[in-house]
Amino acid sequence: MADFSPDMGEIEGVPMLQDICKEWDSIYSFQARDGDVVVASYPKSGTTWMQEIMDLILQDGDVQKSLRAPCFVKVPFLEMAKTSLQLANTMPSPRLLKIHLPVQLVPPSFWEKNTKIVYVARNPKDCMVSYYHFHKMDQTMPDPGPWEHFFLSFLSGKVSWGSWFDHVIGWWKAKGRHQILFIFYEDMIEDPLREIRKVMTFLEKNLSEEVLQRILKHTTFKSMKNNPMANFSVLPTSMFNQSISSFMRKGQVGDWQNYFLVSQNLLFDEEYTKKMESSGLRFRMEL
Ligand code: A3P
């Protein structure tokens, strides 16, 4: 773990941590298996939340089983580290895997196996604020600099995993061609049970109301914040320094209003309209 470096590189024009670039050949040639299930997202979109929900659905709502290991062990983050790849390769099926890759960089074997993928998307303003705090706390990420600097980096896609706009639009377009369930963070906040049911149906499970209620209870912001298997508190501070900012930070829609200046908001909205207009994809920035 101590070997992680915040240096940046690029894969097919997408900014990516140098550690990922170095391992790219083995990441891209990853072999999916029948029955694999994937959670995909742009960073800070509610991936860990969805991960917990999906794991619990696959474990038929068994909370003890869901507590068997920290989230990053039971759900390997494929592109993050050599150890995650090894973990995924040696894990018995059925596997639940996590990726942040833009759709064009997904290992082709997932498409060949017709893998089911749940993609979580979050409005870009909250995503940006969350990513800013994450950059400060995660010692393996580059220093974000002051907020006004990070704001421009995010807007121009010069951050790890690239442009938020390209990411969400790429996955949105791909959902007609593959088994992709597109879920919005804002919808999860609005009605988590409704979204849990959608995921359950997509995963072809049929869980009782009682089990669904248990999953709901175990995956609230408060439960996850207090759950050492979900809140990353088992990582050393040399990796995640949560005295700077908690991984489970606020878990809200609209927190961006505490950070965006009026001028930044105008600039952002202009760019958002230009980039998103023809995509047919809409986000709610407030509930
Ligand atoms: P904030 O930083 O805005 O609080 P990811 O898992 O993709 O890195 O996303 C992290 C974001 O999801 C953080 O957002 C975190 O607080 C939020 N989150 C995690 N679990 C959540 C939950 N159960 N309910 C609501 N938000 C959650």
From TrEMBL:
Residues 34-279 form the Sulfotransferase domain. InterPro entries: P-loop_NTPase, Sulfotransferase_dom. Keywords: Cytoplasm, Transferase. Its EC number is 2.8.2.-. Transmembrane segments: none annotated. Pfam families: Sulfotransfer_1. GO terms for molecular function: sulfotransferase activity. Belongs to the sulfotransferase 1 family. This is Sulfotransferase. It comes from Pyxicephalus adspersus (African bullfrog). The lineage of its organism: Eukaryota, Metazoa, Chordata, Craniata, Vertebrata.
